[in-house]
Amino acid sequence: MSLKTKALGGLILAGCASLYGCAGQHSEAALQQASTDFQKVKEDSNVLRIAPKDVIRAGESLARADRLSSYWGSGSDVLHYAYLSERYSEIAREHTNQVLNEERAAKLELERQRLQLALRESKLLSVQQQGKWLEEQIVALATTQTDRGLVMTLGDVLFDTGEAELKSSANRVVLKIVQFLQLNPKRVVRIEGYADSTGGKQENLKLSRDRAQSVADVLMDLGIDDKRIQVEGYGDEYPVDVNASERGRAQNRRVEIVFSDEKGQLGAAR
Amino acid sequence: MSIRPLFVALAVLALAGCAADPAPNEQLRLTEQALEQAKAVGATAADVPEMKLAEDKFNRAKGSMNDQSFKNARMRAEQAELDARLAEARVLTLKSEEQLNVLNTRITRLRKQLGDAQ
């Protein structure tokens, strides 16, 4: 053998060794990482309870990667199984988080129902306390059959000036609506907010929408499914009276509740 | 020295190659299923990085199948399957978090109203 071929052989051998060395280090690090991740999920009692299968698979893949790492030239296989093991650990972790969230949500749902009941009772109580004479004050409460369907108007008196929150004097009306919707489970509503023409267009639009939304929020809080409620804000459009007089403007500031027919068919929005 | 042993060795190697890595059709089917399941819950490559990994690896696995490089195809498909499953799990966890947020907002609002009413 010539010196030249010897040198070449040596070079190739060195090259192979260094390549193997790199791959070896690389796969060693991946193996370490996978093993750390596996330890973490294995020691988490929640993960073990919720995703035992994924933990087992993570362990199996890790064992395989570990076994392969003792063979020469198996770097890419070690990397592969370390990768799979890490993925299984991550999936186990995600799955656990999901189920824990769902368990927590189930508890919160019970809490929500309890609060809903309490709120309904307290509103009923306040209605009884307010007595008859307040009824007269909710003057703007009216239900009319229009070409848009059954429409109930919540007048300006039920809101503070410039505010979107419903006043507690609206409790009676709101409870009526809730009662009506519970007796007619197929009916849906569209809540439309309107403003008068004083103030900027944008503010009016926002205020009218916020007022409609706050009515919708109260209905939802009292147990009406949010899928049954649409919300629209029309700003100062569609006035019912002139904007020139104070009385007219008060008439125009209102929230209208449009009821669907018994089958849940709502007239088209304006 | 004859070269016959070389042929024998090559033949053995080729046979060993075939025996060790048959076409991973079943794995590709599994991977495709996992991808579809992840898509069904709303995982997209644009939103979930693992979904992009899964789709890329699945495409490369199909490429390896065409090249008859079955070992590569199997490894890529196996990784793609788990990437897709992880993407699916991430989306579901995110959804459960959103649901928690909605519930918490509602409960806060109810508490506030109850406080106002009393």
Short description:
The complex is a heterodimer of chains A (270) and B (118). Chain A has 270 residues and is α+β, with helices and mostly antiparallel strands.
Helices and strands in order:
The complex is a heterodimer of chains A (270) and B (118).
Chain A: H1 3-42, H2 45-50, H3 52-68, H4 75-137, E1 142-146, E2 149-154, H5 171-183, E3 189-194, H6 201-221, E4 229-233, H7 246-252, E5 254-259
Parallel strand pairs in A: 3-4
Antiparallel strand pairs in A: 1-2, 2-5, 3-5
Helix pairs in contact in A: 1-3, 1-4, 3-4
Chain B: H1 4-20, H2 25-40, H3 49-66, H4 70-117
Describe this structure in words.
The complex is a heterodimer of chains A (270) and B (118). Chain A has 270 residues and is an alpha+beta fold. Chain A has 2 domains: 116 residues; 122 residues, OmpA-like domain (60s Ribosomal Protein L30, Chain: A, 2-Layer Sandwich), CATH 3.30.1330.60. About 6% of the residues of chain A have low confidence. Chain A has 7 helices and 5 strands; from the N terminus they run H-H-H-H-E-E-H-E-H-E-H-E. The longest helix of chain A has 63 residues. The radius of gyration of chain B is 25 Å and the shape is rod-shaped. Chain B has 118 residues and is mostly helical. At the A-B interface, helix 4 and helix 6 of A face helix 4 of B.
